[in-house]
């Protein structure tokens, strides 16, 4: 099994994916253990002094004015975890919780939080044992970090609350720790606060969203090319010299992908022939690289933000290298929240343009010779009429999900925390949007491949043939009389989600950008 070693300088997006989705083991480097011990010595020294230090010997948030004596500090740390584990609603997905735990451990390992090495090691042990705390949908305002979700994780470290075992069964966390031979932690000064004061949930979801969108944008370039082919459009608009004069990198990449898919097609270039010659293809076809490319450039910016966060130590207060413990506002989720919302906007627009191409394929007045709704016997058969309805419903929801969460703020903690990021909410709705986008691309794939197969006497591009053959091998039927559509659409959705469309095409085109 793969192992990810955490040092003091952060981690990588791939490490997050490996731990969250693929169960990679986590180890602490000797450098991290030493940094943890050094920072802890600083906290212990401050704890011994009579002067109050936030997070060490005071209450929290609006209650920070109260000085807490030595005899109550262990209780203080337990209490912050218990009281902040106040989430409600459905359970959050296992991969999100694993990312949350791993990224909090990443910050702890930086040596800026003052957490003891043995607590950090217990966090790694819980991940490696496949124990996943039960975290709920609602509870984070994205500032001070993802408090409630992280608190549920910290509660499990204490042997309290519920967690899912490696067998997928939810049990009391204490039972699962005992079965794995892991001793519950007894939190000391500052440790309770340090375990729940970060942007780890929204960051983990951002990193996984970027991985999913990378596959989806390549898939969307392929389906856009297939739709262009089915509509007998022109590939001339994809040529590199046209995109070089508007030098957006994502646009050039999308155009190059589409051109690679269409290489060798006999269906393209007929747009000026026939009874109704076209001077230009419709925007949804001709401008596909511009829309998908803008989304790709948005992803590049979001990845830059994610990489900066992965190199960060998000906590309050933090232990600096000079031994000072300083309050700060680095837990505010605005940088992550903004790009999560930006990605939801880009995803909604990509879904919208894909739906317009599908509608064009189904409309006999605009499909340039294809049968109405790609039906076998239109009138007796309805073809893909209602598949487009489903796609339209998904697009409509994506537009609602594109409304920015980060533009909202609800004051909390008796106005001490009077401006919050809502980054967790932005991340949750982006996950929903990505699922919808995958379904939208799957419907376009279903329609475009059927449209190509109905162009009798013309040979599609080799890459298109590879895509069609792989889709049919996955159990998705081609043209013919009406059939129960839902299973076909579900299979197409799974095909795209697994990256099988990209995998089918790349042996012909070479790696897509």
From TrEMBL:
Pathway: Amino-acid degradation; L-histidine degradation into L-glutamate; N-formimidoyl-L-glutamate from L-histidine: step 1/3
InterPro entries reported for this sequence: Aromatic_Lyase, Fumarase/histidase_N, HutH, L-Aspartase-like, Phe/His_NH3-lyase_AS
Modified residues (2,3-didehydroalanine (Ser)): 144
One of the Pfam families matching this protein, by short name: Lyase_aromatic
Keyword set, alphabetical order: Cytoplasm, Histidine metabolism, Lyase
GO CC, one annotated term: cytoplasm
Major localization class: cytoplasm
Gene Ontology biological process terms in this record: cinnamic acid biosynthetic process; L-histidine catabolic process to glutamate and formamide; L-histidine catabolic process to glutamate and formate; protein homotetramerization
Cross-link (5-imidazolinone (Ala-Gly)): 143-145
Compartments where located: Cytoplasm
Domain of life: Bacteria
Reaction catalyzed: L-histidine = trans-urocanate + NH4(+)
GO molecular-function terms, A-Z: histidine ammonia-lyase activity; phenylalanine ammonia-lyase activity
Enzyme Commission number(s) of this protein: 4.3.1.3
Family the entry assigns: Belongs to the PAL/histidase family.
Name of the featured protein: Histidine ammonia-lyase
Designated gene of the protein: hutH
